[in-house]
Amino acid sequence: MKKSDFYYDLPEELIAQHPAEPRNSSRMLRVDRNTGACSHHHFYDLPSALREGDLLVLNDSRVLPARLYGEKEGTGSFVEFLLLSQHGDKEWEIICRPGKKCRPGARFSFGGGRLRAEVLEVREDGNRIVKFECEGNFYTALDDVGQMPLPPYITEQLQDKERYQTVYSRELGSAAAPTAGLHFTKEMLDEIRSMGVNIAYVTLHVGLGTFRPVKEDDILNHHMHTEHFVLPQETADLINQTKANGGRVISVGTTSCRTLESAAQRCGDTLKECEGDTDIFIYPGYEFKVIDGLITNFHLPESTLIMLVSAFMGYENTMNAYKIAVEEKYRFFSFGDSMCILP
Q1: Taking a C-beta distance cutoff of 8 angstroms, is the pair 57, 79 a contact?
Q2: CATH superfamily name and code, 67-145
Q3: What SS3 class is residue 329?
Q4: How sure is the predictor about 306, in pLDDT bands with cuts at 50, 70 and 90?
Q5: Hey, which CATH number is domain 3-63+160-342, 3.20.20.80, 3.40.1780.10, 2.30.30.180, 3.40.50.1220?
Q6: pTM (2 decimals)?
């Protein structure tokens, strides 16, 4: 398939610039996985789509306030860092701009000296390895100084950092939010549990590669970014039990989906605890081994994420659902509305 097969026309005004209030008041397009039939709801209606014995799998990764604005020591000139991944004690791989200021040995200050950094290495791809210094705990200093790394299509300032976190986030490490879970409230999760629906957690730290465009017209030539995941034994047991009892395993988000399908590639039919890096690329023709349902947001045209959705419920069904969502003026992308795909 070609990249252009996954293009759709999206009016700019449908790109959500701020999250819905309250969280679960966002709209939800419910789609039948088999027929593609669509119906219109709100996210607070989700419990009516679930049944006793189902299992929701959520990604509990927490977003780092990974965007830093500071100055170069000695000159006071402006610099911006974006933290990508940790390489050692207070050593991080980053993107910086302007890059010409970030040569090895260059030192920078953030938050009036709350955080300082020295460039250790320039990598082939232009990313830098830097070493941070601070008084006390690094993550406390980062929380004080850093800002949320919102996607480039969001131009409004976020007033409350927690609105770019899920209410169940706990494992710090993502450079972007697993946004399918932003719609849940704690009260909703309690309601779902009370129905006899189980809830389990995986961790996949979302990288900025999730926003990287597909450049190759032949999608098979696209090289996926790598992200780190953890599947706990407790979650593996719940999935195996749900499958054995005829329940549905419903992935909340493409990150949870990629974690579960990656684990299945390693473990086979019976899942067990595992951890590692995955660069799994799911596109039409892929045979899903774990998930039966998917809750997800509306994704960018020609992105690997819309390709994953197309693999799950069929290309024609997906493109028709997106056409309906545009016509009905659903809100798109990270702070946008939700799609619930169930058999």
Answers
A1: no
A2: QueA-like (2.40.10.240)
A3: coil
A4: very high
A5: 3.40.1780.10
A6: 0.93
- Which pLDDT band, with edges at 50, 70 and 90, does 44 fall under? very high
Q: Which whole-number Å values give the CA distances from 324 to 48, 80, 158, in the listed order?
A: 22, 39, 29
- Cβ atoms < 10 Å from Cβ of 193: 12
* Beta-carbon count within 10 A of 64 CB: 24
Q: How far apart are CA 307 and CA 6, in angstroms?
A: 7
Q: Which of 267, 262, 294 is nearest to 279 (CA)?
A: 262
Same CATH topology for 3-63+160-342 and 67-145: the answer is: no
The overall average pLDDT reported for the chain is: 95
The answer to whether 40 touches 29, Cβ cutoff 8 Å, is yes
The arithmetic mean of pLDDT across residues 183-210, rounded, is 94
276-288 burial, b if ≥16 CB within 10 A, otherwise e?
eebebbbbbeeeb
Note the helical H segments in 158-274. Answer: 186-194, 233-244, 254-267
88-93 own/partner pairs: CB under 8 Å, 24+ apart:
90/131, 90/132, 90/133, 90/134, 90/138, 91/120, 91/129, 91/130, 91/131, 91/132, 92/129, 92/130, 92/132, 93/123, 93/127, 93/128, 93/129
Residue 225 has a pLDDT of: 85
pLDDT at 84: 87
Ranges of each domain in the chain: 3-63+160-342, 67-145
Interatomic CA distance for residues 110 and 119, integer angstroms: 14
CA-CA distances (angstroms) from residue 340 to 132, 188, 230, 254, 262? 42, 16, 24, 12, 22
**Helix residue spans in the chain (DSSP H):** 138-145, 186-194, 233-244, 254-267, 304-313, 315-327
Beta bridge partners of 70: 79, 110
b/e code 294-325 from CB counts within 10 Å (16+ = b)? bbbbbbbebbbbbbbbbbbbbbebbbebbeeb
